[in-house]
Design goal:
Elements: E1 2-5, E2 8-11, H1 15-26, E3 31-34, H2 39-44, E4 50-51, H3 53-61, H4 66-71, E5 73-75, E6 77-82, E7 88-91, H5 92-96, E8 100-102, H6 105-118, E9 123-124, E10 128-133, E11 141-146, E12 149-154, E13 157-160, H7 167-173, E14 179-194, E15 203-208, E16 211-219, E17 222-229, H8 240-256, E18 264-278, E19 281-282, E20 285-287, E21 293-294, H9 302-323, H10 327-354, H11 362-376, H12 379-390
The protein binds flavin-adenine dinucleotide (FAD) and 3,4-dihydroxybenzoic acid (DHB).
Flavin-adenine dinucleotide binds near residues 130 and 162.
Length: about 400
């Protein structure tokens, strides 16, 4: 067993773990990341696409703004559609004076990886059998195996940035003081990425009689589309032709006339889930990002919540190392959970409004349509939606 020490041990090199390590490095706090996948695997995952302006500001503040500002697409609004009712454009700028940025999670991850390489900082990739120990002591540690060798990393703190299926929340659970609050939805999203111009220059979120669809993008020449699908469906059963024809049908003839089809670069199915772990601190173990909470993707909040967690947690850790006080660390869980629950409510609401639910009665469907019509008729409700989409949670 080879033992090493650091100040902060981070489990998981997704956006949460990479960003935390980046901010700590800037403040002179040593951190090591232990990740179970390869760097190529992590950087190839196609996930989030929409960044709140608070996320953009924080990434810029910590020196990650250059490529995002040059290549990201600022979006001043998006459109909601409910079956045949008149489409509703949510004018984010007019309603709330701010915009979101369309810039893929893949790009954020690459920017973080490059910044890490430039500083010569080390990430342990392809670690096996990752386990967390002694979280109730002042010397917690992370053990793992690499190419058959056993390693132990001792630290002052362990931060669980290892996503929904990670080992850190499981370790917290074993303390008996973790509460998990959850709602699973009876459908998933089938996503397709293709090098074709987007059908619309702004995002479209829609509830069609066949189910939800979302038209998004990564650039003026790269589109990202999602279709609501059943949970038991397999991605192999969705040829590109089947996907494009289902999307064209949901778009309807007028909108579909502008749809450019092409071979998929990626296709995957994601289940939808609302989930919160309470609290987010267990002795010297903290949970951040998807390790602590999941939102259904409809509100585009997951990555933004992860960045907001790291904003609070990184400041608290830096404050500990600068002052020796645990005050800010003690406040992390409550502060983060207040924001997380507001994002959970918003994501649940967007999901409820925009999806077809199995067993939905005509009454349920009419109420959904009336909810959409009420929103369309109320500038006040649209402003509330715009503020939540833009991220007014702190
Ligand atoms: P993850 O990205 O899950 O990273 C966790 C890391 O930990 C992974 O690299 C994993 O390999 C590693 N790991 C796991 N277990 C272990 C272990 N035992 N040991 C070591 N390492 C481990 N969010 C938005 O804000 N806007 C959007 O538009 C949006 N759209 C989405 C669309 C889809 C289809 C999906 C699936 C998600 C979307 N999200 C969106 C959510 C967003 O992608 C996640 O919230 C975000 O990835 C969370 O980052 P994270 O670093 O906390 O977790
Ligand atoms: C994308 C994903 C989302 O969940 C969303 O709400 C908007 C855009 C995307 O992948 O582009």
């Amino acid at each position: 067993m080879q033992t090493s020490t650091t100040q902060v041990a981070i489990v998981g090199a997704g956006p949460s773990g990479l960003l935390l390590a980046h901010v700590l490095a800037q403040a002179g706090v040593a951190a090591v990341i232990v990740e179970r996948q390869s760097a190529d695997h992590v950087s190839a995952r196609i996930r989030a696409g929409v960044l709140e302006d608070a996320t953009v500001s924080f990434l810029t503040e910590v020196g990650l703004g250059a490529r995002m500002q040059a290549e990201g697409l600022p979006h001043e609004g998006f459109t909601l559609i409910y079956e045949d009712l008149a489409p509703l454009r949510i004018d984010l700028q007019a309603l709330a004076g701010r915009s979101v940025m369309v810039y893929g999670q893949t790009e954020v991850t690459r920017d973080l990886m490059r910044a890490r390489e430039a500083l010569g900082l080390k990430t342990v990739y392809e670690a096996e059998d990752v386990a967390v120990h002694d979280i109730q002591s002042n010397r917690p540690s992370v053990s793992y195996r690499l190419a058959g060798e056993a390693y132990r990393l001792e630290a002052d703190f362990v931060i669980g940035c290892d996503g929904y299926h990670g080992v850190c929340r499981a370790t917290a659970k074993a303390t008996g003081s973790l509460r998990e609050i959850e709602r699973a939805y009876p459908f998933g999203w089938l996503g397709l990425l293709a090098d074709v111009p987007p059908v619309s220059h702004e995002l479209i979120y829609a509830n069609h009689a066949d189910g939800f669809y979302l038209c998004s993008m990564r650039s003026p020449t790269r589109s990202r589309y999602y279709l609501q699908c059943r949970l038991d469906e397999k991605v192999e059963d969705w040829s590109d032709e089947r996907f494009w024809s289902a999307l064209a049908h949901r778009l309807g003839p007028d909108r579909a006339a502008a749809l450019v089809q092409g071979p998929s670069l990626e296709k995957s199915i994601a289940p939808l889930r609302s989930f919160v772990a309470e609290p987010l601190r267990f002795g010297r173990l903290f949970l951040a990002g998807d390790a602590g909470h999941i939102v259904p993707p409809t509100g585009a909040k997951g990555l933004n919540l992860a960045v907001a967690d790291i904003r609070v947690l990184s400041r608290a850790l830096v404050s500990f190392y600068q002052t020796g006080s645990e005050g800010a660390l003690t406040g992390y869980s409550d502060l983060a959970l207040r924001r997380i629950w507001k994002a959970e409510r918003f994501s649940w609401w967007m999901t409820s409004l925009l999806h077809k639910f199995e067993g939905q009665t005509l009454f349920d469907r009419r109420i959904q349509a009336a909810e959409f019509a009420t929103l369309a008729g109320s500038a006040a409700l649209q402003k509330a939606l715009a503020e939540a989409y833009l991220g007014l949670f702190d």
